Amino acid sequence: MTYNMIKKIVFLLMFALMVSSCISTKKLIYLQEKDGEKLEIKLNPSNIKPYRLQSQDIISIMLKAPDEKIVEMFKTNATSGGENQQSLYFNGFTVDDKGEIRIPVLGKVKVLGMTLEEVRLELERLLLRDYFKADANIFVDVKLPGVVYTMNGEINNPGPNVVYKDKVTILEAVANSGDISVTGNRKNVMIIRQYPHGTEIHYIDLTSIEAMNSPYYYIQPNDYIYIKPLKQKTWGFGVVGSETMTTLFRVVTITASILLLSNRF
Predict the structure, then answer these.
(1) Would you list the DSSP string of 47-95?
(2) How many CA atoms lie within 13 A of 188 on its CB side?
């Protein structure tokens, strides 16, 4: 094997490795438009489904009325508002394994599978039926202590997190967890979601602007979001260009040495 042939083989090998190890910007940019089209995306309200309570959820219930004396007996440490995740753990109303919460005076109330609005209406109905008159003007507010989720995989700050908002997009969750790493697969993000009937797995492509119309664009409490690695990381060529070039240089050097030695013998 001649020296020029060895050079060609080394060059072709190096070129093939560089092409296969490069991460295209199309794999890194969020919400890309197709072929440079300027699309105007309008969120479909039907895609934003209300969350339905599950066992072990913790909710905050606030009861108010013009006459504070008539609601005094219903008050707990969790009815004053402004609670955070930690305080709600100790003072909130936990949905037990039977799907019920225990409220002072009212006792046990079935809430499993209900939305927060449905729980509010049910509590108002029970209070007006058994304890108050319609002219009492009672005010009931039911909330979750933020949206709790877990990010894992190719994310810069993996682990559980919480956003203190009623609605959170998956991009907000990603940003709140330090963003997806360069080697993370943004095109096939896995969402493991809990429902009253069981667990389901969904996928969303965050590189496409159509993701904003996905029913999974808004995360729900207790979502587990997993970011898979790109093939480039699996191959071990490095995360940044300098690491890739170092790996390529070593591969090419070893290959050239083997070819030269085989040519001698």
Answers:
(1) GSPPP---TT-EEEEEEE-SSGGGGGGG--TTSSS---HHHHHHHSEE-
(2) 6
φ/ψ of 74, rounded to 5, equals -95, -10
Task: State residue 80 phi and psi, 5-degree precision.
Answer: -95, -10
* Residues contacting residue 219 through CB under 8 Å, at least 6 positions apart: 147, 149, 168, 169, 170, 173, 191, 225
User: For the packed helices 3-21 and 241-264, what is the interaxial angle rounded to 10 degrees?
Assistant: 150
Start-to-end Cα distance in the chain: 11
| Radius of gyration for the chain, computed over Cα atoms and rounded to the nearest angstrom | 28
pTM: 0.73
Give the rounded distance of the alpha carbon of 250 from its chain centre: 39
Residue carrying structure tokens 């209406």: 121
Write the DSSP string, 99-141: SEEEETTTEEEE-TT--HHHHHHHHHHHHHHHT--GGG--EEE
Burial grade of 48 (CB within 10 A; 0-12, 13-18, 19 or more):
exposed
Distance CA 204, CA 93 (A): 33
Q: What is the pLDDT along the chain (265 residues), one digit of tens a residue?
A: 555 665 565 556 555 555 555 566 777 788 888 766 666 666 666 567 889 999 989 998 888 887 777 677 666 554 444 455 666 666 789 999 999 999 888 899 999 999 999 999 999 999 888 888 877 788 899 998 889 999 999 999 999 999 988 889 999 999 999 999 999 999 999 999 988 888 999 999 999 998 998 999 999 999 999 999 988 655 555 555 555 556 656 666 666 666 565 665 5
Q: What CA–CA distance (Å, rounded) separates 109 from 8?
A: 77
